[in-house]
Amino acid sequence: MSERLSPIPTPASQLWRQLRLQYLPVVIYLAGLVGAFLLWTHWVAPPTLVGEAEAVRTELRAAQSGMLADLNVELLQPVKAGQRIGRVIVNDPKVLEASLAVIRAETEVLRTTTDMNFERLRLDWMSKRVEQVSLQSELQQAEATLARTTALHRIKLVTDEEFDQSRLTRDGIAARLKAQSELISRIEPALQPTDVGSNRTMPSAAVEGLRAAIRQKDEQLRLIEAQLTPLPLIAPIDGVVTQVFRRSGEVVSGAEPILQISAVRSERIIGFLRQPLPVEPKPGMEVEVRTRTLQRQIATAQIAQVGLQLEPISPTLLAAMRLPITTTPTDFGLRIHVTVPAELGIRPGEYVDLILK
After folding, report:
1. What are the phi and psi torsion angles at 320 (to 5°)?
2. Is 294 helix (H, G, I), strand (E, B) or coil?
3. Span 327-342, average pLDDT
4. In what order do the strands lie in the sheet with 257-262?
5. Strand intervals (E) in the chain
6. How far apart are CA 217 and CA 213, in angstroms?
7. Chain-centre distance of CA 251, in angstroms?
8. Which of 22, 111, 200, 234 is the Cys-Cys partner for 123 at CB 3.0 to 4.6 Å?
C-alpha cells in the first residue's frame, strides 16, 4: 500500500492575493458605508440655517469737546463696566483765564468801593478762590503734559531733562495749589457768622447792592469751578478694547469715538430662514447647534424670539452661506434668535449650523 502524500504548502503571496481579490473589497465597501453613515448623521447633516453668534460692540465717546487725558488702556485689554478709563478736560485754558481775569478785575473794583471790613474780607477770600481755580487749570495742563512726556520718555523719544522739567513743573504747581487751598481754609471760618447775624441793623440799599454783586461774582466763580471739573470716561460694558481711535493729549470733539469695546460673550445666536420656509419657527422650539470647529461640538438650544417680517440678511451671514453680496439687499429671511448653549463656549462672531427640530 502506497503512503499518503503530504499537502503542498500554499505560498503566502498566493494567500494574500486570494484575500485581496475576494474579501478585501467587501470589507472596504462595508467600512465605507459605516463611515458615510457616521459622517452624514454627525458631521455632514445639512443644516436648516446658518447662525452667527452676536458680537456686541460699543464706542466710548466724549460728551463734550476737550483734551483727552489719563487714557491708560491698550488693545485687547479687558475692562469692566463702570471702570474709569480716562477723562476729558473740557475747559479751554485761554477762555478760562479770560473769564477769571474778568472776575478778578471786577472783584478789585468792588474792593476799592467798599469800606466795610467784613465785605472786604469776603472779597479777599474770593480773590484767593480765583487764584485757586487758575492753579487748578494749570495743574490739569501740567498733568496732561507730564503724562504725554512720560509715554514718550518710556520709548526714548524725550530726553531725561525734558521729563524732569515736566515733573518739576507739575510738582511746583501742585505745591502752590496746596498752599492756596490752606490759605482759603483759614480765611473761610471768619465768613461764617455773617449769615446768622440777627442783631445786625438792616443794611442800606448801597450795602445790599454790594452784597448782591459779591454773590453774583461768587456764583460765576462756582460755575467756572464746575466747568473746570474733567469729564470721566466710563466703560459701559464688560469686554476688551478692540479699537483705540485717540490717545492722551489729543483734542477730541463732542460725540467723537475714542475707544471701541467688544463684549467677550454672546447672549444670542442670530439666523435667517430663507424662503420657502422649511418649518414654521416658534419661541421655545428646540434647535440643534453644531460648531464648525475641527472637533465639532453639538448641543441643544431653544428659539428665544422670532421676527414678524422678512428682513435683509446681514452681509456676514451671506458670506457664510456662500451667497453673493451686493450693495442692494436681494436676499431676505425671517430673523430668529437662539439661546447660546453654555457648554459650547461660542465666541462672538462665530458661525454655527442650526437644525430646527
Report:
1. -70, -30
2. coil
3. 87
4. 57-61, 257-262, 239-244, 78-79
5. 49-53, 57-61, 66-69, 78-79, 84-89, 231-234, 239-244, 251-252, 257-262, 268-274, 286-291, 298-312, 332-339, 351-356
6. 6
7. 19
8. 111
Which cell numbers in the block locate residue 136? 487748578
pLDDT of residue 197: 43
Alpha-carbon gap, residue 107 to 214, rounded angstroms? 8
Strands 66-69 and 231-234: unpaired
Residue 42 confidence (pLDDT):
64
Identify whether the C-beta of residue 140 lies closer than 8 Å to the C-beta of residue 230: yes
User: pLDDT > 90: what percent of the chain?
Assistant: 31
pLDDT tier for residue 200 given thresholds of 50, 70 and 90: very low
Strand 84-89 and strand 231-234: pairing?
A: antiparallel
The pairing of strands 298-312 and 286-291 is antiparallel
Residues 44, 194: Cα–Cα separation, whole Å? 87
3 state SS of 62: coil
Contact 340, 267 (CB under 8 A): yes
The percentage of residues in the chain with a pLDDT greater than 70, rounded to a whole number, is: 85
State how far Cα 63 lies from the chain centre: 15
pLDDT tens-digit map of 227-260: 777 889 999 999 999 999 998 878 888 888 999 9
Q: What is the DSSP string of 9-56?
A: PPPHHHHHHHHHHHTHHHHHHHHHHHHHHHHHHHTSPPPSEEEEE---
C-alpha to C-alpha distance for 110 and 214, rounded to whole angstroms: 8
Cell of 252: 477730541
- Residues 171 and 8: their CA atoms lie apart, in Å, by 107
Here the cell at position 276 is: 420657502
Q: Encode pLDDT of 98-111 as tens digits.
A: 777 777 777 777 77
From residue 155, alpha-carbon distances to 35, 149, 159, 320, 354 in Å are 59, 10, 10, 43, 50
